[in-house]
Amino acid sequence: MSAESSEPRGRFTYWRLRFRAWRGTRPFWAGLLTLLSGVPIAYFPYAELKLGHLTLTMATTAGAGSLIIGVLLATLGLTMWFQSIVRVFAGVATILLGLVSIPVSNIGGFMMGATLALIGGGLSISWAPGRPVDDEEHADDSADGRPAKHAAVRRQTFKPDGGAVDQGVPDGGGDDPFLPGPHDGGLKLTDTTAHANGGRNSAG
User: Membrane spanning segments where (predicted)?
Assistant: First the structure.
């Protein structure tokens, strides 16, 4: 493969990844559906369909209202893309405009525009930004469900008289507030000694 053919492919991959990153930080599909919903609502009142020598005009007295609704839906779609902080307001306004277009604009652009507006508005309301990986400090990464920062296991040897000798942390971690320290008494182990070294239990 020549360098000329690999360079356009690498450039395409670069812009594709850039677009994916941009799309993941905003309600992209909600904005796209909202933009598309404004097209049939604003188009049909001004459209002229020709059937042979017959011209069918679907213009109504509410043609100006349909145009305003279509422009507002397009504006709300762009708002969802570039001002995602007001996505809830934009979603609610999109749903209301979609409902208003049903009696105003040829049954909401023959229900195509109204349906797209309702779906886009619902997606915009339900969308939430993802949490960065660095902020997930309380994620349960250990096998026993404890946070990862407290996953260090302290090696202890329990003695038959109820005491315990702390032998430190085998993996070099810090103190673990979830594991008990040395006991003065109360724990009676007569015939069993639990060794945390290697996770083996021996009876003797």
Answer: 28-46, 58-78, 85-104
Tell me the percentage of the chain whose pLDDT exceeds 90: 36
Does 114 share its domain with 158?
A: no
Beta strand spans in the chain (E)? 48-51, 54-57, 156-158, 164-166, 192-195, 200-203
User: How many whole angstroms separate alpha carbon 102 and alpha carbon 138?
Assistant: 48
The pLDDT tens digits for 71-110 are 999 999 999 999 989 999 999 999 999 999 998 888 888 8
Q: How far is CA 7 from CA 10, 14, 19, 52, 153, in A?
A: 5, 11, 18, 51, 51
Look at residue 140 and tell me if it is in a domain.
Answer: no
Burial of 116 per CB tally in 10 Å (0-12, 13-18, 19+)? buried
Establish if 10 belongs to a structural domain.
no
Contact 74, 38 (CB under 8 A): yes
The domain total for the chain is 2
Among 126, 159, 184, which residue terminates a domain?
126
Domain enclosing residue 186, as ranges: 146-204
